Amino acid sequence: VTAAELATGAVMLAALAGAPVLSGLIQRQKAYLQGRVGTSMWQPYRDLRRLWRKRAVQPSGTTATYLLAPAVNAAALFAAMLIVPATADAPQFGVGHDALVVVGLLALARGMLALSAWDTTSGFGLMSASRDLTFAVAGEVLLAVVLLTAALPVGSTDLRAMWLGASGSGIWAHPAHWCGLAGMILVVLVETGRQPIDNPDTHLELTMVHEGPLLEYAGRDLAYLQWSLAARHWVVMLLAASLFLPHPSGAAAGLAAVLGWVIALTALLALVETMTAKMRLLRVPHLVGSAGLLALGGVASWILGVTL
Amino acid sequence: VIALVAVLAAAIVAVGAALPVARVPLAVALWTQGVGVGLAGLAGGVAFIAGRTVGAGFRAGVHPGFGIDPLTGFFVCVVAVAALPILVYASGYVPGLPSARAVAGLGGGFLLALIGVVCARDALSFLACWELMTILPAACVLVAKPDVIVRRAIVEYLAITHLGGTGVWIVMLILAERGVLAGPGLAAHGTAVVALVAVASLVGFGSKAGLVPLHMWLPRTHPVAPSHLSALMSGVMLKVALYGLIRVCFWWLDPAPAWLGIALVAVGAASAVGGIVGALLQRELKRLLAYSSIENVGLIAIALGVSIVLGDAGARTWATIAFAAALLHVLNHAVIKAALFLAAGSIERATGEHRLDRLGGLLGRMPWTGGACAVGILALAGMPLLNGFASEWLVLQALVHGAMSSGRTGGLVSGVALAVVAATIGIGLLCFVKFGGLVLLGRPRSEGARRATDVGLPMRAGVVGLAGACVVLGTVPGLVLAPLLRLRSGPTPAGFAAGLWLPGTGGLPTVGLLAVLALVTAALVRARGPRTTPAPVWNCGQADEPALAWTPAGFSSSLLLSVRGVLPTERVLEREHQGSVVTHVRYAQHVPNPFEAQIYRPAQRMALRVAHVARRLQSGSLQAYVGYFVVLLIALLILARVVGP
Description:
- The complex is a heterodimer of chains A (308) and B (645).
- Chain A has 308 residues and is mainly α.
- Chain A has helices at residues 3-33, 43-53, 64-83, 99-120, 123-151, 159-165, 175-192, 219-244, 251-275, 283-303; one strand at 58-59.
- Strand 1 of chain A pairs parallel with strand 3 of chain B, so a sheet runs across the interface.
């Protein structure tokens, strides 16, 4: 085992515990940008601690689906966090490093949450689930094509190879990489449920996209779901940083650069959330679909051998 | 020995098919068929895994011949893996049908025809079994439920599959006439013949497999058939039709031209999207499943097409993997779809309802059937780590590598197809979450669903067995993929385990992933603690009123609204006035089927017009008919003189 492997593995395992910091960081920076005092960046941990002490509920008439949804959600994100490598020297946790498996795991988390809404038949939960899955149709196309733009240069969907392929400066000569970057930023917005796609801070049930099914949960169940959302932030932001943002190919410098980009992306999300309002619901698939077309254009430019 | 077992198996199935005529319990007849199919599967499995060829080889003459090579063995295995649980289920299901004895007998004949098609080694036996495979299920459906709707559905089925089926005759007769049935070699007969055979096979086998635009018979026929027969038709018959396509593309036409691959990808992509959008719009259980079969056949066609394109570009390794991906999805979809059609049959029998919005809450009321149905739905939605995910992952990987290494045209086609498949999987998630939610979860939405209890043991066993196969195949896809890769000569990646470690991917270690998912889930559920005292659903303080319940149309409406530019929705809003007071408002929305409006209705009108003209020839006078014959004879003689030797 090399030092690079150890360091990368340590970062990836630490992220399992540290992911909630990302949500805290975004809230903190948002408060700063909006001229508010805001909460501490450790607030998500306080919330988790509070939820951990509370009792879970079991709405009458629900089945094992309700019980399993939060746990499966967290388990899927847990596996996804072990798959997405922080550097090209990431150790093998026995779950592989394939990009498309990550897409499947994100879909599993989303599908289980939507099924829990059907289990409780809560009107608001189902409204949210329907919207979430609608956005996910365009979102899945975008994510698949964006991952293809990153996989084309290295001829593999192994995320470690893709991490290496995106390092250095040569890759920026290809318009495909720029298209992929543009698409990836939208993927981050869609998957993390941030404005202008969704408003994570809303308390108005009618406007919820991701939060709706969470209304029926309490206690540790809700803690799992909150952690899963934070883990989703880590997974997609790490993907964006390691596949589309400039970083050196060396393990130590690359790890530092990628982590720096993840922090920078939280600042970007805070900025976007401060500056934009939520879009009209039915415009979202069009925006995401257009980004998918742009990324597909990038794929075409790579196949046709266009360089800048 | 394999040959002996295979012959014995066929004999036992035949005896099982004939037994209903005698006065024995139906279950005995069905079990006999089951034993026969199981033995056939065993013979096929040995031939497939050991790579053995037994019996006759392909021959050009008219002597009937049957044999098993590894590809045939795989398809016999698919038939057996799906048909065995189906027959167990049928032993509880068929006795409750009208004309149960005829249904059981014809069903056995159907099984024999299915196995006959894949084992036939000469053109005549192939065509004979092919026609039997078309006619026997039609007869079976008519016997089980002879009413007007069924008759119309069957007429449509026979019309489309027979018109399309001429393609199969053209393919087989050309191959026999050129004497190239024995193996690859048609390519030497010129591009025109190759093109004719390719197009004819796309139409002929494609119409039977349910590829667009010749797919409309499928959602009409499957819902009216008895459920065990729907399961056989959707799970197995569509795959046997694909077997024909595979034989043509990867055997007789080998190496197939790149344009055929591109055509397959295009037709497959249209089927995948058309099928899943159709499924999204359905309100009936089995109709939804039938549309989803079109989607999955489309995915298989895409993988086959990419394999041809990759092979044409010289990327042998991934061409082989794409081919194996298609066959793995053949097996996986056969198992999943059989499970779901059987579960749909149980649900219909237990509740007396077949509409999605009249079911609900069945996971608690029918734990075995409901649980198996949930597994099937998750597998069909491509959720990791059930079997649907493994093969959909492979299809996506095939497209990724198609974009990477099959030249410009092939690369662009693969890239677009990747986006289409991703959209299909996304819509599929929405569709199957809705399906599962409406059928299994929530409150029962009708009196029948409220009173439902689980069905008898054989019916439960059949469904649960198939659901178990979904889990097993999802855990060890690598064990099936390894012999599939050997089917195509060429470099095959070595070093397979239960998971899928393929060159150019990050690997799909199913066992490791399953362990992580299961352990974390179990730990979290344990930490969550036991069920606390039940409380009502919070629902933001709203009362839990049935009138506020979500409908299937409601759940998919945001998607339909966002794509109405492409797929317009027709809305009807009727207001009844009494003076200036609106007394009643009626609202209906409906998405017209573009295939029906653009292709089927015009074709139907044209056919009727032609028939009207042709009727003038039918004067009823004998002299006129004799005259026609004389004219025809003279024309043929002139033709023979002109083109003959």
